């Protein structure tokens, strides 16, 4: 099992872990599927078949959450239900039925009777007690808070479809809490990702913020520190709890996998890789105490990330129902078919990791027990996110209408040595044009598949071809950039220098 929760310090990981740290793991890795080639479904199918084969070899009795590539055929989230009249499993106890509740009153002819009012008070008290008892039944619970799908008129066009979608996805959403000794640490939501009926285990996908040492709302660092030995409890929907055991923590994507002993079947969600700006989505979570479902409506938004956010984030643009959902890091973002299109990364900044990235990461973990990516030493902004006036100006003056604008270059990185600077435009990698940061992230993981196809090691270096537009010299050039294949979180180190008296 791979080590978890280690932070990359900028030093050579081979030296940091020891000469055999990544090598032994890399040598034992089975060969992955062939390189994904766009436009060639045969190679795509072959890769998927190999992934399934590798997963089945590891655990033939395991069941995984379903992933859909692209737009799946539209289907109703709610299916027609047919039932037969069968004998009840729990038979009614013998005896007379509970009498219908009737409200007492004083007949007119007895209004002046001296004892009638005392009798009425007793009857009314008995009536109110029985009425309270009936209202306490689970079928009569109507107390606040109401979700945004109860009676908000603005959601009327999608309310019925959304209700079905939420209920379809809700069974896979669980609550998790962590602690250090007796001291509570963090709370998050999570999703069932895998179940093995033979081993009586299930795996929860959640946010690494569950065991993060520092509040994830603090925006002053790239990679956090984690209490990987924290005690984690999964709060099951039947009111019981189970201990979670950490299987893997990925610092860059800030996701974690926990294994739980389960003697009951769990509901596995369906993920969908397609998500677009402006799409109606819902963010799901669970209440701390009651485990009641929390539902927030919003729309998908593409926007420029904050300084210490990852480039691959998408954003959940919420509405006035936002205040009803707290501590939902690790919860799902679902579409109107009840399919998961992302995992909440930070509910405060409303960022989430799209399912297309989760899909590739979880495929890697199932095959190789790790989730590698390429460390480029740069952050980017997509030209597509700029004002159309700026895009038109770039196109008119410099023949540039898509690509990624370099925002930061990490001090001492290969990108810095290659001469890439803030403001330059990266137009393509390995001969393929790239226009969004999510597309770039997907491409980086695909390059990792090629790296593993060739039986190369984790934490090794690899050269990729980069098409660069130098914004200062107004010229294009193609260069080979050396990158690191790593499953650590990538830290972007700011350039600094000491000021001397002479200056």
TrEMBL record:
Gene3D superfamilies from the entry? 2.30.42.10, 2.40.10.120
Query: Per the record, which residues fall in region Disordered?
Result: 1-61
Source taxon at top rank: Eukaryota
Location of the PDZ domain: 405-440
Q: Which residues constitute the signal peptide according to the record?
A: none
One Pfam family name is Trypsin_2
Comp. bias regions, Basic and acidic residues: 8-18, 39-55
**Stored InterPro entries:** PDZ_6, PDZ_sf, Peptidase_S1_PA
Q: Which PANTHER family match?
A: OS09G0436400 PROTEIN (PTHR47389), OS09G0436700 PROTEIN (PTHR47389:SF5)
Q: What is this protein called?
A: PDZ domain-containing protein
Organism name: Triticum urartu (Red wild einkorn)
Classification lineage: Eukaryota, Viridiplantae, Streptophyta, Embryophyta, Tracheophyta
């Amino acid at each position: 099992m791979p080590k978890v929760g280690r932070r990359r310090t900028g030093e050579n990981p081979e030296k940091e872990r020891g000469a055999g740290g990544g090598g032994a793991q890399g040598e034992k890795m089975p060969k992955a599927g062939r390189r994904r080639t766009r436009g060639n479904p045969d190679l795509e199918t072959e890769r998927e078949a190999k992934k399934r084969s590798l997963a089945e070899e590891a655990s033939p009795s395991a069941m995984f959450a379903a992933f859909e590539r692209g737009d799946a055929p539209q289907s109703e989230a709610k299916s027609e239900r047919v039932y037969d009249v069968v004998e009840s499993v729990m038979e009614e106890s013998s005896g007379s039925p509970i009498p219908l509740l009737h409200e007492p009153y004083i007949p007119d002819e007895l209004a002046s009777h001296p004892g009638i009012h005392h009798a009425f008070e007793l009857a009314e008290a008995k009536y109110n007690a029985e009425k309270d008892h009936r209202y306490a039944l689970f079928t009569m619970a109507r107390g606040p808070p109401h979700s945004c799908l109860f009676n908000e008129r603005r959601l009327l066009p999608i309310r019925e479809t959304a209700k079905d979608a939420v209920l379809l996805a809700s069974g896979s959403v669980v609550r998790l809490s962590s602690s250090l000794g007796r001291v509570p640490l963090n709370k998050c939501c999570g999703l069932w990702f895998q179940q093995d009926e033979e081993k009586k285990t299930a795996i929860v996908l959640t946010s690494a913020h569950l065991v993060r040492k520092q509040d994830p709302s603090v925006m002053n660092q790239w990679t956090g520190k984690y209490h990987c030995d924290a005690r984690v409890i999964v709060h099951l929907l039947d009111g019981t709890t189970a201990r979670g055991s950490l299987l893997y923590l990925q610092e860059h994507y800030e996701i974690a996998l926990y294994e739980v002993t389960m003697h009951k079947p769990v509901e596995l969600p369906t993920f969908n890789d397609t998500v677009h700006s402006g799409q109606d989505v819902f963010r799901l979570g669970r209440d701390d105490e009651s485990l009641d479902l929390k539902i927030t409506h919003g729309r998908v938004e593409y926007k420029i990330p904050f300084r210490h956010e990852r480039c691959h984030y998408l954003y959940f643009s919420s509405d006035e129902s936002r205040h009803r959902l707290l501590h939902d890091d690790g919860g799902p973002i679902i579409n109107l078919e009840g399919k998961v299109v992302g995992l909440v990364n930070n509910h405060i900044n409303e960022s989430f990791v799209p399912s297309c990235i989760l899909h590739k990461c979880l495929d890697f973990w199932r095959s190789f027990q790790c989730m590698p990516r390429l460390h480029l030493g740069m952050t980017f902004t997509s030209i597509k996110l700029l004002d159309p006036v700026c895009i038109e100006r770039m196109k008119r003056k410099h023949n540039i209408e898509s690509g990624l604008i370099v925002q930061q270059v990490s001090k001492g990185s290969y990108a810095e040595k290659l001469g890439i600077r803030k403001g330059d435009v990266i137009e393509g990698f390995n001969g393929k044009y790239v226009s969004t940061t999510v597309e770039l992230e997907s491409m980086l993981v695909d390059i990792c598949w090629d790296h593993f196809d060739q039986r190369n090691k984790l934490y090794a270096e690899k050269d990729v071809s980069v098409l660069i537009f130098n914004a200062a010299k107004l010229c294009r050039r193609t260069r080979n950039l050396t990158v690191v294949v790593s499953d650590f979180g990538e830290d972007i180190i700011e350039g600094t220098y000491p000021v001397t008296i002479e200056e």
